Each structure stands twice: as structure tokens, then as C-alpha cells.
TrEMBL record, chain A:
One of its GO terms (molecular function) is catalytic activity. Gene3D superfamilies: tm_1862 like domain (3.80.30.20). It comes from Klenkia soli. This is Radical SAM family uncharacterized protein. SUPFAM superfamilies: Radical SAM enzymes (SSF102114).
TrEMBL record, chain B:
Residues 16-199 form the DUF2344 domain. Residues 220-230 have a biased composition (Basic and acidic residues). Pfam families: DUF2344. Residues 215-255 are annotated as: Disordered. InterPro entries: DUF2344 (IPR018768). NCBIfam families: sam_1_link_chp. This is Radical SAM-linked protein. It comes from the Bacteria.
Length: 671, 255
């Protein structure tokens, strides 16, 4: 089969749209393969704008893993902005991939990574543009199998009508298994058509095929039953977990766009999973256990990535990077390696801990000293006990002051608003904290030239967390608390002018809440919103609360439920939740107990350093914590002297020899 | 007093290289900021020993000039880079060209001659070739004549600060029409004035004087950029540096 390039028909349209470079491909490290040379074709999509989607690590990893297979190819596609989407519809040009501008319609799989539920309307937009029927049951063998992945796939019920499969957990291995299934089915002459293909896929561990399950509802609107409608599919679907991250050093060749993106740096994932036990954090709950990349594994990835990209900053990524068992050594030895090369190293936001200031100092030695970001999340000590992110007010002020004393001029603090049991007083403590931080900071820095930015997000309860039963705060509550906080910060302008406050109103959070904890009935709302023109819901200029509220009111009324039922209603212990058949490994009883402990303001410690508290993941999934220290170290990369050019390099820059691991011990596996 | 970073100042610029590069194929859709990003990263991958500015936020010494607009292709974009160590210009050209994506091709690299003046001063005009598919040569020819006959042609230009009326005619040095199968081609030399008169503005002028409305989006290529010479041609802006360089040949060249 020959697949035509849509580029000749797309090109005249590009002259008429904003930022056309995002649609032409040709990124550094992009891969192209001949269509007919492989059996299985994957289109990988991030359902948001190119500038947001391109840096996504998950998509880059799967892109490389699939393209390394001899029998498969993977190309990328992103959400098309309305200006071009309109022209494409007018001229009959379908959703295309960037590598060869092939029609998405012609691929075997369309894999869509949902980091957030607000991408759902963009999925419908892409399917429609691609000419793929919106509803899974309306598709035939000629259409791609639409696969949802990413964290939101842990409750795919709201998009159950639109996707053929949802994949739970780490994607590295499961995409290979799915490719094998498709390849075998094709080799056998596609027996049983699409239904048989989906049935085979449903037997791959980690793959959930919603159309093979039926849901019924009780009179009070809750789920009465959830049952398979075939006897050859599993009753529960468990997530996939990749062990030994050093065996998966992806992305090896990160994509570098010409266009500007939201992350102008390369990233190395230093560990996966988190057991800090922050009760609001879905990522920390669904990605257990902690699996560290070793210091030498990190060193080689940083080295290879910098050579492959030319980026001048490396982010050391994870859910809580300062918790890596070798982080101090990683920071120091990487900073040593890249001394004098204008290469910056950075951590994402960290816990509030004085050690993290030392780390940041070390990491910023060679590069630009931008701001420092901490995430206390809760305003008061009481609410921080509720969310299990304990730090005392004194420690918090002391840590931030230390940062100012060390020459950081800009500190950003992340908080949430609308947490369970929260009152106005909890939120008002954020203002007290910020004021104290600035007072102490000015004294420590000996200057008034310091700033503190308080960034607040509305809390949205997520599936597979202890807060999955909680009542979400209403938009009015959030807006009220943000208002009193703003007034408190501005009460004293002499201090307040050094404090920036960044927040959004509470309404988008309510819709995110509907989509997060929704069931299959919510699919009607998504489709209605999309039909009424909704898309790019993560962008305030496109998001319309009224459109969502109207659609929810009208589409949910026949079921006797509404927006508030899904969001501000507290769930009971024995209510069947829409995602109960999807296995993150967490024991539901443990989650409930942890929810009760939250209400009692009781803390739970991290199982990396204290005995196991039986969250259930390791025994259920057959996994274990993988942490160091390994005892290894990074030896300095020999810098080749100036004036000895090497082809194709000209020499003199951060030219380095291949890293040699000074291995003295294997990683320590506990549990 | 402004704060200064600790430590010694960065090493000074010891060599300035001037490069001519292209924007071809799909990369004509790159903006000047996209190109700047691509170039800076390619310089790092090619390990060109760049000189950096001082301060808390050191930047590599790169001077961009006269970027072609987004959507326009170019055979003649220019940039000057400052190096902290001397390098053979041709080695830099080859390494950088290999590091840049296909379509951004480095065609020339010469060392700036001492006392030869600023490169920007040698770039005051552009020769454009604008392909107009679906337009008859006669039609374009008549429009070009009408444009050249007019004393001023005011067109509305979109700027950052909203629409602004500019005289597109004043910047046009010469214009001519030719034809190929199914298309007319406009050859036009435009003086680089402020605000810039771009291919779109020239086409707006043709629409104003002769009601010329191409049925398909026009495709513009900057064929040459340089100083306008006495004959109305665009001179090679790297010529003076190349001549100075060849005069110095025989001197030992540090690699």
C-alpha cells in the first residue's frame, strides 16, 4: 500500500496560519522510515498544541522504542490550532503526521497520551479531522485502533465510547506487545476483523478494551454493576510496570524542534514512581514503586542527550528529584563535568528542605541562575498534615531565607486551594508565610531586590488516591478563598509589592473534576461540548465554562445526575467507583484507611526509609523498590584540548569522551 | 551599582566569522526566532568555541541581520558570530552545516576583515524572486509597469502596533516580470527601509495599482542581499572580507 503525503495540499494553507513551522516537521532527531518496509504503523499523538506536546517525555520514549523495531514505525501528530483546522476542513486535508505528512487515518494505531483530561475534546477534534469515526463501535478494520495512555488513562471511562483501548502504566513494553498482536493478526489474514483484533489486544497485560464491558446504574446514580460482556476478557485490568530503568535509557536522542516549546531543555528521568505519599497526588500513587536510574545511568544519558541536542540545560526529572538516593553526588559530579561549558542543570519544583537549596546551588554552578521553586502545597501546618506533606512553618521560612542568602533572587512557592477540610484560615496562612519569607529574605539578602511568587492551583480530587472519595470545593469556594488571600497579601504594600500571586479562577477545575472522576455517561458531555465548538480546553482563551456547564446540565439530566454530583459530592466507602476494575496495585482498603487518617490529620512516612505500610502495590504487581546508593561515581569526562578539531565537531566546546562507569557495586534493591 | 557575577569575565572575542545560509523547502516557514534557536543549538552541537557576553545570563556572541519574513525562502541570510578561539572558517562552515537541519544550509563562511566595517552596513537591499502560480506573464508585466509608473503607492501594513500606511513604491528599486509554465515570476529589488517593505507589501502594491490578485499563495525567495551598487545590482556583502582574506593568504593560519 502506498500512502500519499498530504504536504503538497497542506503547504498552500500554511502560508495563511500562525506559526506554520509547527506543522512542517523536520525536527532534529526526527525519524522517518519507508511505509512499506514495516508491518505495523503507529501514529503517536499528544492532544495539545505542538509547543506543549513536543517536549513530552512519554511520547518521545515510545517514539524511539517503536522506531527501533524492525517491523514497526512511529510518527507524531499534535493538535492542530483552529486557524489551520478550519482551512484543512475547507480543503479536505486530513489530520497528518509530521514526519512524512501521512494521513493519520491510514495508520494501524493512533496512540494518544493524556497527561490531563482537558485534552479529551482535542481527541475528538483529531479523530474528526482524520476522518475516523468518533465512536469506537462505528470503526472497521480500515481505521486505526485508537489507544489512550498517560495518567488520565487510569480512569478512561469518560472517553470509553471514543477509544478502542486504554493502556495502564508504563508504556515501554506494552507498545511492543500490542505491535506483536497486530502483526500476528495481520499475518494470519486479519481473522475475525476488528473485534477479534481488539479481543486479542484485551488479553495483553495492561490493555483495557472498554467496549467489552457493560455498566449499569442504580437509582441513586451510582454504578450498580460492571461486567465483561465476553468471557475471554479479564474482569480486572492491571497496570504495567517497567523495572530497571537503566535498561530503558530513553529518549536517547531527544527531539529538538525549530519552533519554541514550553520546555527549552532536555530532560533525563532520574527515577520513576514516588512513595512520599502526598494524598492529593495521583502521579505518586499510580506510578509506585520507586525505581531509580543509577548515577552512572543518569551520567550517560545526560552526556548522550547533550551531544544529540545542543541544549544548554538539562532537567533532572522525576516526581520528587531531591529524593534520589544519590542526588547530592549526581549534582556535584555533573556540575564538575560541565564546568565552564555554560551548561545548566535544573530540578523541577522540590520539597521545602534546606538540603535542596544546597543542591540547587550546586546545579546552577555552570549555568544561568533562574528562580528556585518549592512546593509546600498546603498553606497551614494543619492542612499539610492532611495532605501528608509535612513541613513546619519555621523550616519553610528558614529554607526560603537560605535560598535568598545564597543569592537566589526569585523564589516561587506552589500551593493548592480547595483541599479536603480546608478553611479560609488555612489559605490565609499562605499570606502570612509569604510576608514572613520576604521580611526574613530581605534581611538575609541585605537587599530589597528579592521576589516571592505564590502560585496557586485549585485542587481536583483524582482516581486511585486517598482523596478519590472527597468532595471537590466549588468554584465559588475557590474564588472566595483566592480573593481573601489576595487582599491579605496586598494589605501591606511595602511587603506585598515583592510578592506575586498567580492563580486561575475555580471554574476550569470543576470541569477537570468532572472528567477526572466521571463515568461513561460523561462521554456524552464531552461529545456535546466538542460539537458545540469546544477544544483546547487547557487554554483559557478557548475554554468555556458555560459551554461545559450547559452541556453537562442537558446531557446528564436524563440520567438523574449533574455536574455537582460528580464534583462536590463526597463518596461513601462502599460506592463502586468508575475505575474500580482498573488496577493500580493500590489496595482500596488501604486507600480508604489513608483517607480516614487524612481526616484525622495523621501522617504516614515514606516506605523507602521506614517499614512497608501495605499500600498493596509491590505484592499485587510483583514489583519492588529499586533504590541506591550504588556506590558508583561519575568520573570526569576528559575535555579534549582546544585546537584539535574532530570531525564533524570543531573542538573546544563541551567536548567529552565517552563516559566510563566506575562501577563498584550493583544497585541495592530493598524489600 | 549593578550586581556582577563572581569569577573572571568570559574570554574575549578573538575572531569574527560571517556566514551566508539558506532557508529552503519547508523551512521557509521558520521565523527569525526559530532560526536563531536552531543556529545556537547547532553551534553547540558543532562545538564551535563561541565567545559569550558577560553577566548573569551569558549569551553567545551572534549578530543576526535582515531576516527574511516567515514563509519566505532565502538563499542569502547573513549572521556574524564571535569566537573565543580562532578556527578555520571552512571547518566551521562544514561542521555547522552538518549540524543544521536540511534546508538551513551554510553556503559560505569568511573571517571578518579588520577595519572592514560592519556587515549590517553592507546589507541595504534584497533581490526577490516571487512565483505567482496561476498568473499570466502579460498580466504581471502590466502590473509591474503600472507600479513603476506610479510615484507613490500607499499600502496598509500590519505591524506590532496595528495597521500602518507605508509607501511601498519608494522602496522598489527595479522590477520585472518573466514567465514559466503556469506561472508568472516577479523579479524585484527592494531597498531595506524602516518599516521593511516585504514581498507581501509589494504584492499589495500591485493589487492597488493593477488589481492583481494571485489565485494561489505567492512563493517568495530572497535570491541576494547586499548593498545596491551603481548599476542597481545587489553586491556580494562578503566580497570585501573575501578579498582581504585572500590578500592574507600565506600567513600561518591557526587551525
Amino acid at each position: 500500500m502506498t500512502v500519499e503525503s498530504l504536504y503538497p495540499r497542506l503547504e498552500p494553507l500554511l502560508a495563511q496560519v500562525q506559526k506554520p513551522i509547527q506543522y512542517v516537521g523536520g525536527e532534529l532527531n526526527a525519524q522517518t522510515k519507508p511505509w512499506d518496509a514495516v508491518r505495523v504503523h503507529w501514529a503517536l499523538m499528544y492532544p495539545d498544541a505542538y509547543e506543549v506536546g513536543l517536549p513530552n517525555q512519554g511520547l518521545m520514549i515510545l517514539y524511539e522504542v517503536l522506531n527501533e523495531r524492525a517491523d514497526a514505525l512511529a510518527e507524531r501528530t499534535y493538535a492542530v490550532w483552529p486557524d489551520l483546522a478550519g482551512l484543512m476542513r475547507e480543503h479536505g486535508v486530513g489530520q497528518f503526521t509530521l514526519e512524512n505528512h501521512r494521513p493519520v487515518r491510514d495508520f494501524d494505531f493512533l496512540g494518544v497520551s493524556f497527561a490531563t483530561e482537558l485534552g479529551y475534546t482535542n481527541l475528538l477534534d483529531a479523530l474528526d479531522l482524520a476522518g475516523v469515526p468518533l465512536h469506537a463501535v462505528d470503526r472497521d478494520e480500515t481505521h486505526p485502533v485508537v489507544v489512550a495512555g498517560g495518567h488520565a488513562a487510569f480512569n478512561p471511562e469518560p472517553v470509553a465510547d471514543f477509544v478502542d483501548c486504554a493502556v495502564l502504566g508504563d508504556g515501554e513494553q506494552v507498545v511492543g506487545d500490542m505491535t506483536d498482536v497486530h502483526s500476528a493478526w495481520t499475518a494470519e489474514g486479519r481473522p475475525g476483523g476488528r473485534t477479534e483484533l481488539l479481543a486479542r489486544l484485551s488479553r495483553v497485560e495492561g490493555v483495557y478494551v472498554p467496549q467489552f464491558y457493560a455498566v449499569s446504574y442504580a437509582a441513586d446514580g451510582t454504578i450498580a454493576s460492571f461486567t465483561p460482556n465476553r468471557d475471554d476478557v479479564p474482569t480486572r485490568v492491571a497496570k504495567r510496570t517497567v523495572m530497571d530503568l537503566d535498561e530503558w535509557p530513553y529518549p536517547k536522542q531527544p527531539l529538538v524542534p525549530l519552533a519554541e516549546s514550553v520546555h527549552e531543555r532536555m530532560s533525563v528521568e532520574i527515577f520513576r514512581g514516588c512513595t512520599r505519599g502526598c494524598r492529593f497526588c495521583q502521579a505518586g500513587m499510580i506510578t509506585r514503586p520507586v525505581r531509580e536510574r543509577t548515577i552512572t545511568g543518569i551520567g550517560s544519558m545526560v552526556d548522550a542527550g547533550l551531544r544529540a541536542t545542543g541544549y544548554e540545560e538539562v532537567g533532572l526529572l522525576s516526581l520528587s528529584s531531591a529524593d534520589h538516593s544519590e542526588i547530592g553526588q549526581v549534582a556535584k559530579e555533573l556540575a564538575d563535568r560541565y564546568e565552564g561549558t555554560n551548561t545548566g542543570l535544573s530540578l523541577p519544583s522540590t520539597r521545602v528542605d534546606a538540603f535542596n537549596v544546597t543542591l540547587a546551588n550546586e546545579l546552577s554552578r555552570n549555568g544561568r541562575r533562574s528562580g528556585l521553586t518549592f512546593a509546600p502545597e498546603g498553606g497551614s501546618e494543619r492542612i499539610r498534615r492532611v495532605i501528608n506533606k509535612t513541613v513546619s512553618k519555621e523550616d519553610l521560612v528558614r529554607t526560603v531565607t537560605t535560598a535568598y542568602a545564597n543569592g537566589w533572587r526569585q523564589v516561587k512557592l506552589y500551593f493548592m486551594c480547595g483541599l479536603p477540610t480546608e478553611t479560609d484560615e488555612d489559605v490565609l496562612e499562605i499570606a502570612e508565610l509569604a510576608v514572613e519569607v520576604i521580611r526574613a529574605g530581605r534581611e538575609a539578602a541585605g537587599s530589597k531586590d528579592i521576589r516571592c511568587t505564590v502560585s496557586i492551583g485549585g485542587f481536583v480530587p483524582k482516581p486511585h488516591t486517598p482523596f478519590q472519595w472527597a468532595a471537590q470545593a466549588s468554584a465559588e469556594t475557590i474564588d472566595h478563598r483566592l480573593r481573601v488571600l489576595r487582599d491579605a497579601i496586598n494589605a501591606d504594600r511595602r511587603i506585598g509589592r515583592s510578592i506575586g500571586l498567580r492563580y486561575h479562577d475555580g471554574k476550569p477545575g470543576v470541569i477537570e473534576g468532572l472528567l477526572s472522576r466521571g463515568d461513561r455517561r460523561v462521554g456524552r458531555v464531552i461529545e456535546r461540548v466538542w460539537r458545540d465548538g469546544g477544544h483546547f480546553d487547557g487554554w483559557s482563551e478557548h475554554f468555556s465554562y458555560d459551554r461545559w456547564a450547559t452541556a453537562a446540565a442537558e446531557e446528564l439530566a436524563p440520567f438523574g445526575v449533574d455536574l455537582a454530583w460528580y464534583t462536590t459530592r463526597e463518596r461513601g466507602e462502599h460506592e463502586q467507583l468508575p475505575w474500580d476494575h482498573l488496577e493500580s496495585g493500590l489496595d482500596k482498603e488501604w486507600l480508604w484507611d489513608d483517607w480516614q487518617e487524612a481526616l484525622n490529620e495523621d501522617e504516614v512516612a515514606d516506605c523507602r526509609w521506614t517499614p512497608c505500610y501495605d499500600c498493596g502495590v509491590c505484592p499485587t504487581m510483583g514489583t519492588e523498590i529499586q533504590i541506591g546508593p550504588t556506590g558508583r561515581s561519575l568520573i570526569p569526562l576528559a575535555v579534549v584540548g582546544a585546537g584539535r578539531p574532530q570531525d564533524p565537531a570543531v573542538g573546544g566546546g563541551p567536548q567529552v569522551d565517552v563516559a566510563v562507569d566506575a562501577a563498584v557495586a550493583d544497585p541495592v534493591h530493598t524489600h | 551599582m549593578a550586581r556582577q557575577p563572581d569569577g573572571p569575565p568570559p574570554p574575549p572575542t578573538v575572531q569574527r566569522l560571517r556566514l551566508r545560509y539558506t532557508k529552503r523547502g519547508p523551512l521557509r516557514f521558520a521565523s527569525h526566532r526559530d532560526l536563531a534557536r536552531a543556529l545556537e543549538r547547532a553551534l553547540r552541537r558543532a562545538q564551535v568555541p563561541m565567545a559569550f557576553s558577560a553577566g548573569f545570563s551569558p549569551h553567545p556572541k551572534i549578530s543576526y541581520m535582515g531576516a527574511a519574513p516567515t514563509g519566505a525562502a532565502s538563499e542569502a541570510e547573513y549572521v556574524e558570530i564571535g569566537l573565543a578561539e580562532r578556527r578555520d572558517p571552512e571547518a566551521v562552515r562544514v561542521a555547522l552545516d552538518a549540524s543544521l537541519p536540511p534546508g538551513i544550509d551554510v553556503l559560505e563562511c569568511v573571517e571578518a576583515s579588520a577595519g572592514g566595517g560592519a556587515l549590517a552596513d553592507r546589507l541595504d537591499s534584497t533581490r526577490w524572486r516571487i512565483d505567482l502560480a496561476g498568473v499570466e506573464v502579460d498580466e504581471l508585466d502590466a502590473a509591474v509597469r503600472a507600479l513603476l509608473a506610479a510615484e507613490t503607492v500607499v499600502v496598509a501594513k500590519r505591524t506590532k502596533n496595528g495597521p500602518r500606511d507605508i509607501d511601498a513604491r519608494a522602496a522598489v528599486v527595479s522590477a520585472a516580470a518573466s514567465g514559466e509554465a503556469g506561472r508568472a515570476i516577479l523579479h524585484v529589488v527592494v531597498r531595506q527601509v524602516t518599516p521593511t517593505v516585504r514581498p507581501d507589501d509589494v504584492l499589495a502594491a500591485l493589487a492597488a495599482v493593477a488589481d492583481l490578485h494571485p489565485p494561489l499563495p505567492p512563493r517568495a525567495v530572497r535570491e541576494a542581499q547586499g548593498r545596491l551598487d551603481d548599476t542597481g545590482e545587489v553586491a556580494d556583502p562578503l566580497g570585501p572580507d573575501r578579498e582581504a582574506g585572500s590578500r592574507c593568504q600565506g600567513e600561518p593560519q591557526p587551525v
